[in-house]
Amino acid sequence: MFDKDLIEKLKSSVDIVELVGRYVNLQKSGSYYRGLCPFHNDTDPSFYVSPGKGFFHCFGCGASGDVISFYQKIEDLSFTDAVVQLADMFNVNVPMHVFEETAYHKTTKILENLARYWHNELFKKSEASLNMINYLKKRKIKEKTIRSFELGLSSGDRTLDGFIRSNIKVDQNDLVKAGVAYINNGKLINRFENRLTIPIRNKSGRVVGFGGRVISDENGPKYLNSPESSIFKKSKLLFNLDRAKKSISSLNYVIVVEGFFDVISMYEAGIENVVGTLGTSLTGIQLKLLKNITENILFFFDSDEAGQKATFRAVEMAEQLGLSTAVVQTPKFKDPGELLLKKEPKDIRDILNQAIPGAAFKVHHFSRNLNLKNDQGKKKLLQITEPYLRKYHDQGDNPGLQIAVKAISELTGYAEDSINVTSRRKSFRKAAAPGFSKKKLKPGEKELLKIYFSFLEYKSRVLKILELLPLSSACMEIYKIIKKNDDFELLLKNVEEDLGRELMNTAETPMSKNLAKVILNDLEKCTEKMLIKEQIRELDRKISQVSNEKVKTSLLMKRVQLSRLLLKSQGGENNGS
Fold this sequence. Notes:
The chain is of the alpha+beta class. It has six domains: 4-98, DNA Primase, Chain A; 103-231, DNA primase DNAg catalytic core, N-terminal domain, CATH 3.90.980.10; 233-347, Dna Topoisomerase Vi A Subunit, Chain: A, domain 2, CATH 3.40.1360.10; 355-425, no CATH class; 443-511, no CATH class; 516-569. The strands form four sheets. Strands 1-2-3-4-5 form a five-stranded antiparallel β-sheet. Strands 13-12-14-15-16 form a five-stranded mixed β-sheet, sandwiched between helices. It has a four-stranded antiparallel β-sheet with strand order 6-9-10-11. A hairpin with a 2-residue loop joins β7 (181-184) and β8 (187-190). It is elongated.
């Protein structure tokens, strides 16, 4: 279905470190990146990503491949859908006739058309639509914002019937697969019946699902999302990211809120760099999506107990990823939606500007249930926060440490210097066990393998040299594999992790073609001399054993010829044999 050029263009267009980094917390290690494998229960990082070669490999479970196979495996997609979604994500053009044949295109097209259809339903002068418009007006949501988010109305099963009739190529099964309907007793049931519909788009701007809100609590849960599917996974999506990413990049920070209307309310107030977690707990994957755009996160979750606990968890997760965090606190208002109802846009911006650093928020979070008017409460706060201070200290996060210490000082009245002492306790760690000697490559072997991995046209010359040279056990192991197959991923699957890491570093280290030629020429001369000397030694052995003068004379003539050849290869020097 896809030609080779398209696949190669896609592989070269996708930064494998960025893509894998959305799912795995990668740390740079030499010329590659390392992390816990997402494909098995990994406790000691055995998952490696090579940016130069564009592939990943796990020494624990053996999973390996390129950007396409990684995305296919992590998202449980067919090869075709993986290619199309990656192309869509990284702006690589796929021929339209190919794109239109994929399940991804068909489903998103249905959802986009349905979003438009329900949006039009909202502006029809029916009783249901007028009630919905009035509800939005009460929330201070203006028509411009309604149209921008393409909010709609799914008034009942008839809207699906009307949609099917207006879209000849859509049938009931398509709507069920798209997650907007289900079959009950042979009847097609609208999942979003009598709800305000909110299209949910992926980062590329394609509709992948819906959120639905009822006006009355009598019709089931207040909010309802599309069911999980291959294209709709709440833990991997952020509401409004497609629209907000440009503003986030420009302002270099993002505001993270909880629900749909929190995002819409902020947008109504003129604040565009805002995304929502689809009403669920924030995930590491969502944070990594944001980290690709900015490293500065402003959390604005609900002010109730649940919201504050969610904020604490979010700050912790973000700090683990090395992100800078701040928190908006509005105890008088439940959420951004209520804030918009009771305040003006300028007031909202002022409140955002009063956000406190994440490290200070954690201290205040711990102090909520303590009586800081007496020494017992103050000492308790020190006791609770001590592990967090030590963590900032051990991780080298001096700004976080200083902010937390200052917050404790302001709450307790203790001098900052005295609080700092609690973070300076030694962090005892088990001594590393003495390591056994590992297989290692000699420097010259590394240079040869570097040429082998870097220049396809020199592979046969490298193999010939390796065949003749005395090799280390590590290089002999590699030689036996690459002699049969030049697949680098296969090679990694057949060597130990330490040797695999060394190979990855060797393959990633650049070498000029001119230097490669010089090294090969020198080594070929060296191996040629070795061969001649070996042949001379063999002739000497035969001469010493032969009794036939005619045979001996013939062997002596061959020895003279080899000696001259050796002398020539040494630049005229005496060979000493």
